[in-house]
Amino acid sequence: MLAQEAGARPCFGSHCDPGLARSTCGLDVVGAMSTLGSMTKKAESTHAAEAAVAAHYGMLLGIQSPWQVKRVELKLEAKRVDVELGHDASAAVACPECGRACPRYDHAPERQWRHLDVMQFMTVIRARVPRCQCPEHGVVTATVPWAEPHGRFTLMFEAFAVAVIEAARSFVQAMEILRLDWHTIQEIVERAVERGLLRRSTDEVRQVGMDEKNFGRGQDYVSVMTDLTGRRVLDVVKDRNTASGLKLWESLPPEQRQQVEAVAIDMSAEFAAAAKQAAPQAAIVYDRFHVSKHLNEAVDKVRRDEHRRLLEVGDESLTGSKYLWLQGACPEGDRALDFSELCERNLKTARAWCHKETFVEFWAQPDAISAQAFFRKWFGAARRSKLEPIKKTALTLQSHLQGLLNFFLHPITNAISEGFNSKIQAIKADARGFRRFENYRYRILFHCGKLDLLPVIR
Fold first, then answer.
1. pLDDT tens for residues 6-28?
2. What is the model's pLDDT at position 213?
3. What does each C-alpha distance from 101 to 91, 134, 135, 178 come to in angstroms?
4. Does an H or E element contain 113, and which?
5. Interval 343-363: pLDDT, tens
6. Coil, strand, or helix at residue 146?
7. Distance (Å, rounded) from C-alpha 156 to C-alpha 147?
8. Which residue would you say has higher pLDDT here, 336 or 437?
9. 325 vs 130 pLDDT, higher one
10. What is the pLDDT of residue 340?
11. Which of 130, 239, 435, 448 is the most buried (most CB within 10 A)?
12. Nearest to 122 by CA among 71, 76, 184
């Protein structure tokens, strides 16, 4: 047998010619080395692609040192992108309480934060947040720059969610757009409202309004305080008694309550008592629209009594005339003729209507002194009218005269509060009612409080 050349690899277990073996095995080595080189290049290319994707997402998310994107995982079936972040092991960890740079203690369990979607893919950030050992505060978990403490969403996603909820008519629409459940939407609303209340300034509040709003069925009410100048709801509390009125005043700092100049209310004794106790310097102004309501109710009571008496003798003159007497001016068109005929008949209802319409001139007086003189004349005529509902209403207005005269020093009404009542009613209707008062309050403040709801994106 021919001697094998030095360095040649024999083909063991083969009957082939040694020369042929040397040639074939040499080709195998070259092929293996080529394949290994291709695999190495492919691995390097894959690693470079993954690094490029990680860098790309790092720029999109605004991730800066000591945080970095470690890995991006695409889950096609779940239509989800997971972005894993890591904290530089050599970097110090800032204490969330005092900001001191402290040594790392360990890592908290991995957490997830929902981020803005990438096209049709839900994006989730995952990270283990480091914990530091602060000499003053002990072992504490560091804060992350992309989310608020204890939050489950990134700042960008939460800002987007707040904008969607503000624009959506109901939670159902927001749930469909954001792909979140009802409780999560409510959590975002609560966080936004609490954030806004912490930032809210009440330094400019000088005139407030207090009103009631129906909450549930029957005699279930809530009390609402509004900033008449800023046109915003300050707070909402349950019930409509003196205690709830005092709780409303607590939405203003003690020093700010002393700056309030006037409060517009209906003729509720509970709201008046709360205002006198919480802000004794504030002038109580009785809302002119509630005064008109009292007068309208007196006129309608006279009409009902007289209508019943006329029907007993077969007279249907007042049938269908209810709203003719309650509107704020003489009717126009074809109905004006019928109304004029009714007025000429010296009906008790017509006399009551005249007293109601005459009182409108009270608000047109140039000052409080003239208004007081006008009221004195009107009150005398109303007391001599022999119309019990009118006489009773006149006595009610006389007992509240100072609050009526305050209108000429502070010409405010609860019209803004009534306007909010319409918006609040729409919120209630869109939600199909509320089981819990707290949810009702958060929703009102979210939509009517003019709060700064958005998180600060760092």
1. 444 444 344 445 554 445 545 46
2. 87
3. 9, 8, 10, 38
4. strand 111-118
5. 777 789 989 999 999 999 999
6. coil
7. 8
8. 437
9. 130
10. 74
11. 130
12. 76
Q: For residue 57, give the nearest of 130, 123, 155, 154 by alpha carbon.
A: 123
pLDDT computed for residue 260 by the predictor: 96
Q: How far is CA 57 from CA 83, 129, 156, in A?
A: 8, 19, 14
Q: Calculate what percentage of the chain has a pLDDT beyond 90.
A: 65
d(CA 286, CA 284): 6
Could you identify the residue written with the tokens 């096209």? 119
* Residue 18 to residue 326: CA distance in whole angstroms: 121
Q: What is the C-alpha end-to-end distance of the chain, expressed in Å?
A: 81
Is residue 398 pLDDT above 50, yes or no? yes
The pTM (predicted TM-score) of the whole model is 0.80
Q: CB within 8 A of 204, min separation 6: which ones?
A: 229, 230
- What does pLDDT average to over the chain? 87
**Residue in 298, 292, 282 with CA at minimum distance from that of residue 403:** 282
Q: How far apart are CA 300 and CA 326, in angstroms?
A: 7
Q: Which residues pair with 232 in a beta bridge?
A: 227
Residue appearing with tokens 């949810």 = 439
C-alpha pair distances (Å), 373 with each of 289, 332, 368, 397:
21, 32, 9, 14
Q: What is the largest CA-CA distance in the chain?
A: 148
Q: Is residue 300 within 8 Å of 322, Cβ to Cβ?
A: yes
Long-range CB contacts for residues 34-43, cutoff 8 Å, separation at least 24: none
**Overall average pLDDT of the 294-320 stretch:** 90
Picking from 269, 255, 271, the residue whose alpha carbon sits closest to that of residue 208 is: 271
